[in-house]
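Colleagues,

For the teaching module next term, I've prepared a clean inverse folding example: a structure given as tokens, and then the sequence designed for it. I'd like students to try predicting residues themselves before seeing the answer, so please don't circulate the second half yet.
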């Protein structure tokens, strides 16, 4: 990224300015100088080009401080859109978001089941096109499609969906095949990481050490450190579903024993409920296969809310294991904030939230220095799909910048103090 002195506008300065405007909501040109450390001339040139491209608009004036009132800038939210797709065995969720990450259309369809991957790709292309058309959005304004799925993720070849239910996908080249079918750019990522990115892009998460604890078909976590997603060398950071909690526990599909997912995941809850004839009858479980896991987990949750003690006990046991994994993650990363998200927690979050929160309040190692704020996502059911769309917006409009750090209080950037330089990571 160009430095503040004598900077020449280029892609990274454009991306930095766009990101600051997005995060601030509204901000003046003087505020942008302070927030980015670029010169006034650089900011003036970049902002003019963003306005010419339709990405940014002028929107009134700031309060007068005695001099000329400053013109405020904000994103032109309807100038660009992105499609986000969450692919899972039990269902496929689609969202269309505007430039700010707000959902303008969504739909859910049948999961991948045992379908041939190429047939699923053609179906996703058709359904994505229907979503765009149904929202009345010009296709030329759609930047592309973000696709997320449960890990492990192979960044070089696409998604390696190795869970038993979808192992037949193997090393299928999902990204290139979906680009061919849709005619749109496609980016891939892990569903838990996407959920964390979606929280951040929409302004729901701060810029410190933040994690999204995700429960869908399985369990995982997405990490945001200083506003940047941490993925690890292979893109699989945050796999807390495979933290071992019991050395001699049940075997997990990953090959280890006693993993969080094997003890606390929706599959473990449903399997235990089916083994209890009284509870299975009370909850109305189907006894079906893996494709019924989400529906049966929801049925167990409804039974718990009706006061069934067996259902409540199963979910609270799962929540205690999940809380232990959350504490491990919080201790390792020294988290500021943890959000519970994903389809499973959209269903049962009211039972899991107090258990996780109590565990961190009582046992988080650094609790004397600072607490971990724990909350339930407001969009838990569609968080991965929203994050997938945000991922495309970010890749197209805000390329990764290793050193960018936004001010803690962007509102203060409007004050006429000397420009602050952007700090960089070693």
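(Answer key — instructors only)
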């Amino acid at each position: 990224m160009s430095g503040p002195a004598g900077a020449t506008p280029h892609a990274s300065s454009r991306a930095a300015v766009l990101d600051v405007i997005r995060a601030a909501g509204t901000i003046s040109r003087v505020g942008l100088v302070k927030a980015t450390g670029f010169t006034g001339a650089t900011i003036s040139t970049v902002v003019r080009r963003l306005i010419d491209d339709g990405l940014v608009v002028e929107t009134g004036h700031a309060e007068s401080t005695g001099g000329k009132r400053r013109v405020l800038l904000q994103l032109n939210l309807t100038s660009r859109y992105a499609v986000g797709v969450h692919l899972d065995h039990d269902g496929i969720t689609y969202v269309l978001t505007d430039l700010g990450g707000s959902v303008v259309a969504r739909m859910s369809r049948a999961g991948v089941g045992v379908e041939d991957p190429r047939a699923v790709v053609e179906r996703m292309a058709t359904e994505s096109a229907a979503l765009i058309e149904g929202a009345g959005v010009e296709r030329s304004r759609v930047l592309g499609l973000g696709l997320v799925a449960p890990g492990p993720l192979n960044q070089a070849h696409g998604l390696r969906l190795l869970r038993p239910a979808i192992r037949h996908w193997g090393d299928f080249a999902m990204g290139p095949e979906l680009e061919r079918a849709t005619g749109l750019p496609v980016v891939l990522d892990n569903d838990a990481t996407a959920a964390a990115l979606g929280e951040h892009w929409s302004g729901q998460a701060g810029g410190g050490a933040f994690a999204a604890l995700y429960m869908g078909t399985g369990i995982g976590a997405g990490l945001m450190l200083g506003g940047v997603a941490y993925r690890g060398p292979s893109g699989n950071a945050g796999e807390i579903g495979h933290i071992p909690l019991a050395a001699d526990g049940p075997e997990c599909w990953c090959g280890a024993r006693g993993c969080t997912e094997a003890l606390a995941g929706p599959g473990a809850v449903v399997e235990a409920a089916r083994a209890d004839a009284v509870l299975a009858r009370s909850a109305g479980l189907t006894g079906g296969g893996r494709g019924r896991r989400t529906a049966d987990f929801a049925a167990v949750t409804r039974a718990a809310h009706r006061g069934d003690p067996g259902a409540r006990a199963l979910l609270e046991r799962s929540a205690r294991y999940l809380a232990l994994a959350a504490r491990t993650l919080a201790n390792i990363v020294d988290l500021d904030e943890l959000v519970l998200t994903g389809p499973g927690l959209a269903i049962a979050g009211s039972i899991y939230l107090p258990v996780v929160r109590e565990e961190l309040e009582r046992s988080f190692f650094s609790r004397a220095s600072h607490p971990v704020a724990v909350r339930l996502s407001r969009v838990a059911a569609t968080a991965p799909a929203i994050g997938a769309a945000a991922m495309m917006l970010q890749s197209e409009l805000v390329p990764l910048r290793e050193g960018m750090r936004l001010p803690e209080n962007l509102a203060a950037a409007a004050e006429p103090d000397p420009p602050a330089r952007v700090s960089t990571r070693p």
